[in-house]
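Observation: inputs received (chain + adenosine-5'-triphosphate).
Thought: call the complex predictor directly.
Action: predict_structure
Action Input:
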Amino acid sequence: MDNIEKVRAKISMYDDEIIKILSKRMDCIDEIMQYKKEKGLPILQPEYEGKKEVALCKKLKDNKYEDEIMNVFRYVVKNAKKYQAKNLFPYNIMLIGFMGCGKSTIAKYLSHILEMEDLETDDFIVKREDMTINEIFQRKGEEYFRKCESNALKELETRQGIIISCGGGMPMRDENVELMKKNGKIVLLTASPETVYDRVKYSNQRPLLNGNMNVEYISNLMEKRRSRYESVADIVVNTDQKPIHAIAEEVVSKLANLD
Ligand SMILES: Nc1ncnc2c1ncn2[C@@H]1O[C@H](COP(=O)(O)OP(=O)(O)OP(=O)(O)O)[C@@H](O)[C@H]1O
Ligand SMILES: O=C(O)C1=C[C@@H](O)[C@@H](O)[C@H](O)C1
Ligand SMILES: [Mg+2]
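Observation:
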């Protein structure tokens, strides 16, 4: 064997070791998930991630390959999170609820913490139609927008393992709910009319609220939708006066405890 072949053989041997070690590391993820389940511990522990990064930096200090190895570790951690999410949620997480209840905010947070892709049906429609939601309502009318929502769900029918933040009116149509339930669990986020008002009062991006930006209007529309929202939801999480991470944890633990 010439020298280069010898080195390649060595690399191959190290690859075997890496595979063995990575598999053992993944087994630990299974163990941790099982342990958290048994002890009723929070599934999301974002503070652990920061500590882990610091600990790894310390271990790699003065290592010639510090940057490269650190990058590999980040990828390892990313994939461990993906593996965990895939096991916990082998379906789409469909966030529904009134405007301003926090669907987009929670979807983004969960997407980061679980390494799951997130998608906004409103954004999806804006891209397809090449118009803002306000423009669609003004030029084509609400009924047209509602058809776009159904079409968006049909296009997304085959996707799996994503977090979908649905437009506030999406669950009002039976055909939409059917599509949402096909390969997803429906998470209803709630907030009081006062909270919603506080969160959205300076925005003009929600056509239904333009010219109606007051607690009374919000309260009336919310009441009209309440029973529909509640009847289609697999789980419900109230978001009033709660920080994002607490809402996200509640979503995740309630979903994980579904049969
Ligand atoms: N738990 C929370 N605490 C404080 N502010 C929040 C919370 N959740 C969301 N917000 C803020 O409220 C506003 C509305 O939130 P978000 O856009 O996520 O709502 P949404 O349900 O997606 O609304 P829409 O249906 O109109 O898309 C944002 O400015 C966001 O930063
Ligand atoms: O609640 C609703 O009906 C809506 C909510 C937004 O997400 C947009 O989908 C649109 O403004 C309509
Ligand atoms: Mg949103």
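Thought: report the result.
Final Answer: Residues 83 and 250 are 20 Å apart (CA to CA). The longest strand covers residues 184-190.
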